[in-house]
Amino acid sequence: MSRIETVFASLRQQHKKALIPFITAGDPDQTMTVPLMHELVKAGADIIELGVPFSDPMADGPTIQRSSERALKHHVGLKDVLAMVAEFRKSDLITPVVLMGYANPVEAMGHEVFAAKAQESGVDGVLTVDYPPEECEEWVKHLKNHGLDAIFLLSPTTPQSRIERVAQMAQGYVYYVSLKGVTGSSHLDLNEVADKLSLLRSHISIPIGVGFGIRDGETAKAVAELADAVVVGSRIIEEIESSSKSQLMENVIRLVRGLRSAIDEVVVKH
In CATH, what number is assigned to the domain containing residue 199? Predict the structure, then answer.
């Protein structure tokens, strides 16, 4: 069983839902990423999504775009991100790490080389925003050959044919983008999310995480009532952006602990 499968199996036994925080590698600087990853785990993260900085993050709103810009100013690239995961793995062999990013850095490195290096570094899954499921069989094959889960995004506008395709190819979990638009959007319609998750579960057997628009404990709890995992990105990045270096860890951890506490209020029925 993969690390991601193990985490979800353990959470089911505990009647809990997963919390998946997102941070951008190298934001606010390269030295803080690995310590922040460890602190996220202590605060209750079950899986960490680690963003690979990219100059044109088209699916991301201004907040995460700025985090990429800050990381790129420090010249943080894909090789650096893999090195950060390897460093994290020296003392954490349990928490899954999912790389989230775009095709260009992977293409530059090469599919096979990337998959091998990601496995060697201790990466568990890869979510590449701009690889459509209809065109990435070879990509998924490379990931599988190296024990990496291919994670896909679905949205409110995803057609039935793509849902069925993702159901065949996805591993680990599926990330449902709960809003139309980019990361950091608001106006989350929970009834719409509930209806869509019902449809998705009729096709998808692996866990489904929901992200975009989750900004506080109340919303995190409401989403946890519906989904298998709650993904929080822009709100955490905002905390990083607005905090001084001396207060950053404390502020982020306070936020994540609050989200964890709210999610754990959900009574999971089986």
Answer: 3.20.20.70
pLDDT tens track for 164-177: 999 999 999 999 99
Q: Considering the candidates 60, 124, 149, 228, report the single residue annotated as catalytic.
A: 60
46 is catalytic: no
Rg (CA), the chain: 17
Q: Quickly tell me which residue has 């036994």 as its tokens.
A: 13
CB atoms within 10 A of CB 183: 23
Does 60 participate in catalysis according to the annotation?
yes
Asked, for residue 268, whether it belongs to a domain, the answer is: no
Catalytic-labelled residue, pool 5, 27, 46, 49: 49
Q: Which domain holds residue 109?
A: 3-263
Strand pairing of 97-101 and 125-128?
Answer: parallel
Closest CA to 258 of 229, 232, 226, 237: 232
Other C-beta atoms closer than 10 Å to the C-beta of 246 total 7
Predicted TM-score (pTM) of the model is 0.94
